[in-house]
Write a structure and sequence with these properties.
This protein has one domain. Helices cover 62% and strands 0% of the residues. It has helices at 2-33, 47-63, 68-76, 84-87, 93-101, 105-113, 119-137, 155-158, 167-177, 182-197, 212-217.
């Protein structure tokens, strides 16, 4: 029951990051390369990945062919090509993560800088968050689980003994990507309520330190 409730409150936070990333990727990439720039392999690092990416796009467009905005572009725009700002709406978080990973470093830096995060950290964070998002979506286990896709943690967290293979490491990354507003504070409070409701849960198996509330609620600077 703890695991199910934990997934629920965490998914809400991940969803915010996913929606925000779609917006920032679409705005940046479309402005620099044009709304059809995704079709040009030279705008990416790995041509072989780009070829697979284009095939994934075709599959997603076919899968979402009944969506009104997709049908509109396919039927009424030249060559039926879907512009990037619309395309990102049907890409999964995992596909967005892979897209970011194959962008040129200068572009990664530009996007990551809007979050005040170095691009090597940001790249690992969104890959790991995407992985956790899928665990939540498919009713998987977060409690006492070792993560396959792990985030690169800041030294300040490693020095506290926080492990990047446990879920608390991902929560530390979320903290840096979400505004420290009442919604985030509400998330921290919801976590605390879950620990109170389920007293037998062992927080340390998820790498939660004793002062976990202070870490998640404190300044990111």
């Amino acid at each position: 029951m703890f695991n199910a409730n934990f997934r629920h409150v965490l998914f809400e936070q991940i969803e915010k990051i996913e929606v925000n990333l779609r917006c920032r990727l679409a705005n940046y990439f479309s402005t620099k390369y044009g709304v059809l720039g995704y079709s040009d392999a030279s705008n990416f690092d790995d041509p072989s990945f780009h070829e697979m990416f284009l095939q994934d796009i075709k599959d997603e467009i076919k899968r979402n062919s009944r969506a009104p905005f997709i049908r509109n572009f396919v039927n009424y725009y030249e060559n039926g090509t879907v512009p990037f700002y619309a395309l990102v709406e049907i890409l999964s978080f995992g596909e967005l993560s892979k897209l970011f990973k194959n962008m040129h470093n200068v572009d990664k830096k530009a996007i990551a800088s809007t979050y005040n995060v170095g691009y090597t950290y940001f790249e690992s964070w969104i890959e790991s968050i995407s992985y956790v998002r899928n665990i939540c979506a498919h009713y998987g286990r977060l409690y006492n689980a070792k993560l396959t896709k792990t985030p690169k943690l800041y030294q300040q967290y490693r020095e506290k003994g926080i492990s990047n293979i446990r879920i608390f490491g991902v929560l530390c990354c979320l903290k840096h990507l979400l505004p420290p507003d009442e919604h985030w504070i509400g998330f921290v409070e919801a976590l605390n309520s879950l620990f109170i409701k389920y007293p037998h849960v062992k927080k340390e198996t998820m790498s939660f330190p004793e002062n976990w509330e202070e870490i998640l609620s404190g300044s990111t600077k």
